[in-house]
Design a protein that fits this description.
142 residues; alpha+beta; three-stranded antiparallel beta sheet; two-stranded antiparallel sheet; 5 strands; KH_dom-like_a/b
Amino acid sequence: MSDNPRTKTRPTGATASLGRTGFPGITSATGGEINTVTGVSQPGFNPLDLLYASLSACLAMSARIAAHQMGLQDRVERIEVRVSGEKASEGSSRVAGFNVTFTLQGDLDDALRQHIVEQAEAICTVSNTLQGKPQFDIHVTA
């Protein structure tokens, strides 16, 4: 929670549910819904896509925030962040590394683009979380 009384908070969290067959449906704490897929040729999001989507959306929004904080918001026309990853070849099933490509269109030189990206990475809650080792508090109910 922020000490700033002007900071608005939003409920966060997600619940995935599925039956004996089919794929998980996911509902956000605010009532948003998304269905997942796992088939190789099925269009849609699988769990890894959702991870990459979270990182790309957070970094893109954070880049816009950084540009605004730097007084550059009028010079940025478009921000695109593409994220993919490499699964680990050994050990537990996990993403061993992320490939992140920022495209910043507008009246910016390379130094400003780099600075915006560095600030975005510092601002983004998702990238900061992934770079740490968050704790899991797991509960089991019937």
